[in-house]
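Structure first, sequence second, as always.
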């Protein structure tokens, strides 16, 4: 499955929604772009076809302010919203930071998370921080774990 005709894709995590639909996350690399890589999500119906009700074609890409981003983990909230954690690094040299995005069930970014559906959090200033796992607590709080160099 291609996100664009000249992109490279990788998958890193999968979650099954309550309705049986499958959400896969990872990264899409876009040669020649300033962002280098973006969060990539695809949602599949139970029969394995892309779910056209998710962002119009079953696929969504998210950039964090012209940066290199990749998703490493996904969780589905009880209300159907999709929470994705990963890493982001501003364009050019600099450290990687935790990155979280939340999507509505239709694949659009959920603006109730930090105003635009995306948030980047440095864990330790100047160090590379890698988010490895996201879970959603019963009370709706998002918990992200990972490492910091």
């Amino acid at each position: 499955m291609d996100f664009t005709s000249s992109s490279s894709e990788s998958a890193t995590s999968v979650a099954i929604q309550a309705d049986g639909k499958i959400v896969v996350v990872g990264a899409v690399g876009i040669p020649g772009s300033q962002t280098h890589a973006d969060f990539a999500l695809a949602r599949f119906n139970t029969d394995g076809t892309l779910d056209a009700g998710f962002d119009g074609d079953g696929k969504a890409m998210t950039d964090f302010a012209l940066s290199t981003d990749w998703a490493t983990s996904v969780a589905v909230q009880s209300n159907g919203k999709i929470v994705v954690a990963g890493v982001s690094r501003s364009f050019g040299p600099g450290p990687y930071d935790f990155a979280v995005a939340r999507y509505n069930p239709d694949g659009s970014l959920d603006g109730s998370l930090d105003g635009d559906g995306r948030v980047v959090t440095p864990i330790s200033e100047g160090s590379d921080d890698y988010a490895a796992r996201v879970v959603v607590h019963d009370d709706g709080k998002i918990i992200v774990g990972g490492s910091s160099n």
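Margin note: Strands lie at 8-16, 22-29, 37-44, 59-62, 67-76, 82-90, 97-103, 118-121, 129-136, 142-148.
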